[in-house]
Amino acid sequence: MKLVIFDLDQTLVELLPLHNRATEETFQKVFQVKARLTEVDFAGRSLIENFIQLARLKKIPEDRVREKSREMLAYYEQVIVTNFPRNPSRYSLPGVKRLLTRLSSSGHLLALYTGDSAAVAKKVLAATRLGQYFKFSFFGTDVPTRADMVRLAIVKAEKLTGHTFRGKDIVIIGDSIRDVECGQQFHARTIAVATGFHTVAELLEYRPDYIFESLKDYRKVLEAIDKPGQEI
Predict the structure, then answer these.
(1) Whole-model pTM above 0.85?
(2) In terms of DSSP bridges, do strands 136-139 and 3-6 run parallel, antiparallel, or are they unpaired?
(3) Gap between the Cα atoms of 127 and 121, Å rounded
């Protein structure tokens, strides 16, 4: 049994245009400036971290963002929910549902971590019907860092199963260099997927254990997950 932790945006789903719209409308409403999420390196960061990055780019003091963070999150979530696509299932990335279905039936324990707020992530998971595959999820507005999310996932997984998860018994799958870095802190198996903001070349610089163009060839991804590895 392995603890397999997935990132959400641009790993399992592609809703970047919607996030761009929500960011633009939020910054226009709160600060009266034009800002798009893709103006900064947003991948693998929480919403608040990205708000701060964008604010810095637009010469807005960080303390103003922190002061307005609740208002910004509330409006961002409102834009996402109001403009959510009518057929969200088509926004699941290739191979994702087959991979999750196979993993769920193979005895592995699946968890999700994301920089999204709980409201945004739960909307995406419910609409795409991906939420059914995960035993637990962690959100960027509730847990400070991705490493903290992994620590919580390990504790929950061990309590639920009675199994000890260490080293390559933990698998981190994500589209960003920060997912790779996070997994390496735990000596976990890191699987990078180049369906997001970071290119194959950028991901390779951080030396993930495996890298795939996408999850479309889910059988090869399964092989990478199941491969035996030395515990640390």
Answers:
(1) yes
(2) unpaired
(3) 10
d(CA 82, CA 85): 9
The owner of tokens 């397999």 is 4
How buried is 6 (Cβ within 10 angstroms: 0-12 exposed, 13-18 middle, 19+ buried)?
A: buried
Q: Is the torsion defined by CA of 8, 10, 13, 15 positive or negative?
A: positive
Sheet strand arrangement including 210-212: 136-139, 109-114, 3-6, 170-174, 189-193, 210-212
Q: Do strands 210-212 and 136-139 pair parallel, antiparallel, or not at all (unpaired)?
A: unpaired
Per-residue pLDDT tens listing for the chain (232 residues): 999 999 999 999 999 999 999 999 999 999 999 999 999 999 999 999 999 999 999 999 999 999 999 999 999 999 999 999 988 888 999 999 999 999 999 989 999 999 999 999 999 999 999 999 999 999 999 999 999 999 999 999 999 999 999 999 999 999 999 999 999 999 999 999 999 999 999 999 999 999 999 999 999 999 999 987 644 3
Q: Which fold has domain 3-13+90-226?
A: Rossmann fold (3.40.50)
Give which of 41, 47, 7 is closest to 174, Cα–Cα: 7
Distance, in Å, from the CA atom of 156 to the CA atom of 150, rounded to the nearest integer, reads: 10
